[in-house]
Specification:
The protein is of the alpha/beta class and 340 residues long. The protein contains 15 helices and ten strands. The strands form two sheets. Strands 3-4-5-6-7-8-9-10 form an eight-stranded parallel sheet. It has a two-stranded antiparallel sheet with strand order 1-2. It starts with a strand and ends with a helix.
Length: 340
């Protein structure tokens, strides 16, 4: 498989990576089998997170059986306290059964306040630098859903990689690909399937193949999903005109109901966690059902507080009918939990 230089890190990684959320839905044996098959197929970049249920331990089980030096292992943590961030990284090292992380990322830096907390004296950034100084961490990156903030992060010189959502339904990060490359910042593309909204995986990955410097990390749960991704990356090419037309049609169909999690709607007077609720189906698709239910229940219970003030609608740059989507998400959640 073609290798991609991950910015100026000096790391060469497979042109497609392995997103580690869905393996939390599997048994240990199933997860190890999928991860092992991915390595055998030439995938060398594995992305996980401290908060992904069972993901780090299962990656650890599989990676202990392979040549660690051939693999690039990335995890992330969303703590805004430096000491807690350091403890979580140490726990990630233990779970993964490794002496070092190739890349540690600040997880979902959603707004300026969070970024300031990460960069504050004694905060997570300083903790990550100390971990890097002693060899436990080799490179430092950041993940976000905020495109505006991501541009500043790329320009800041603080981060060696940036992880952003990019797909043909939500292509807002596309202009940042060249910006990151020009500054030597590796670009990791999360949400290639728009959190499961794009069911045509071949189209989703073909869209991303027009950006040869990025590393997509599709969440992989089954051997069939793995085989499909590997097949496309064994013969990569930009999308054809017909494929682009199909993408445009699907984007028009999905785009008016798809939350990009940009965070502009934060600050609801009723303290409704709008992005979390509108991404509920995505959580349910990718995470173990019990974990998704626990994460969503208290947020879904707040939907009834909505007063239809429509502040969120005015703030949404994508003109989503947020109150209607909230009610739809709550109704879906109530039906889904009855099946558990």
């Amino acid at each position: 498989m073609r290798q991609v230089a991950l910015g100026k890190t000096g790391l060469a990684v497979s042109a497609v990576g392995f997103g580690g959320i869905p393996i939390g839905r599997l048994t240990d044996e199933q997860a190890v089998n999928v991860i092992t098959a991915a390595i055998d197929a030439g995938i060398t970049f594995f992305d996980t997170a401290y908060s992904y249920p069972e993901s780090e331990p299962r990656l650890g089980m599989a990676l202990r059986r392979r040549d660690r030096d051939r693999l690039v292992l990335a995890t992330k943590d969303g703590s805004t306290d430096g000491a807690l961030f350091a403890r979580h990284v140490e726990e990630s090292l233990r779970r993964l059964g490794t002496e070092h992380l190739d890349l540690v990322q600040f997880h979902n830096v959603a707004d300026r306040e969070t970024w300031q907390a990460v960069m504050a004296p004694g905060g997570p950034y300083e903790a990550a630098c100390r971990l890097r100084d002693r060899g436990a961490v080799r490179h430092i990156g950041v993940t976000s859903h905020s495109i505006d903030l991501a541009a500043e992060m790329i320009d800041s010189g603080c981060f060696e990689t940036v992880q952003l959502p990019l797909n043909f339904v939500a292509p807002e990060a596309a202009p940042l690909v060249d910006r990151a490359a020009s500054r030597g910042v590796g670009f990791i593309a999360m949400k290639p399937f728009a959190g499961g909204m794009i069911e045509h995986g071949d189209l989703a990955l073909r869209y991303l193949q027009q950006f040869p410097s990025i590393v997509p990390i599709p969440g992989i749960e089954t051997l069939d999903e793995l085989a499909a991704a590997v097949r496309l990356y064994e013969a990569p090419r930009p999308p054809t005109l017909d494929e682009r037309r199909r993408m445009d049609d699907l984007a028009a169909e999905i785009g008016n109901v798809f939350c990009r999690a940009c965070g502009y709607c934060r600050g609801c007077p009723q303290e409704i966690a709008i992005p979390m609720i509108l991404r509920g189906r995505s959580f349910a698709r990718r995470m173990p059902a019990a974990a998704a239910e626990r994460a969503l229940r208290r947020h879904m219970a707040r939907v009834d507080r909505c007063t239809q003030c429509r502040q969120c609608v005015r703030q949404c740059p994508y003109h989503l009918d947020v109150p209607t989507l909230l009610r739809d998400a709550r109704d879906w959640f109530n039906q889904w939990t009855q099946t558990l």
